[in-house]
Amino acid sequence: MLAFCLLGAVVLAASPARAQNETEPIVLEGKCLVVCDSNPAADPTGTALGISVRSGSAKVAFSAVRNTNHEPSEMSNRTMVIYFDRVLVNVGKNFDEERSNFIAPRKGIYSFNFHVVKVYNRQTIQVSLMHNGWPVISAFAGDQDVTREAASNGVLIQMEKGDRAYLKLERGNLMGGWKYSTFSGFLVFPV
Q: Looking at the whole model, is its pTM more than 0.90?
């Protein structure tokens, strides 16, 4: 299949330019992407045609949960980052398990959702999804008459390669917090 993609790329490079513009990828059979470089001399790989072939099937997704009750550590007390101790899915290995951060592998539109459960504390919690240190969305749980309540939200974000997303406790504490809190995300499509 790679040979077909490469052959198709060579044919496209040799034929007159038909792409919408020089930076847009061309999809061949839905199996590979061909990106033509308008300046092949600057290509660090040294290919004379200035063509880059990448797999169109690269997938990115993660889902992490609290497997135990949350007893804030020294690190989480200082940073207020909500840590997850069990990763259920980490396709592409872009969820940093040690820091509970997602790191975008490429520019694209990403979907995130979270559910952070508070238990038995008569206070309001505010949880924010952070993008490179800035809050994007927040959710609150503050009903004084229930024993369990979740702060939940979801959003689409355009991210650059290397951008980070994580959850931060903006208000309240999770002492005694329940183990069913989740944080999930995936690449909707590259841009």
A: no
Q: What does the pLDDT look like over 131-154, one tens digit per residue?
A: 999 999 999 887 666 667 778 999
SS3 78: helix
Burial (CB count within 10 angstroms: exposed 0-12, middle 13-18, buried 19+), residue 190: middle
For the purposes of burial, counting CB atoms within 10 Å of the CB of 44, is it exposed (0-12), middle (13-18) or buried (19 or more)? exposed
Nearest to 102 by CA among 135, 143, 60: 60
Measure Cα distances from 95 to 55, 88, 103, 148 in Å: 21, 11, 6, 27
Which among 106, 110, 83, 56 has a CA at the least distance from the CA of 183?
Answer: 83
Give the integer Cα–Cα distance in Å for 113 and 2.
35
> Looking at residue 140, what is its pLDDT?
86
SS3 83: coil
d(CA 128, CA 110): 16
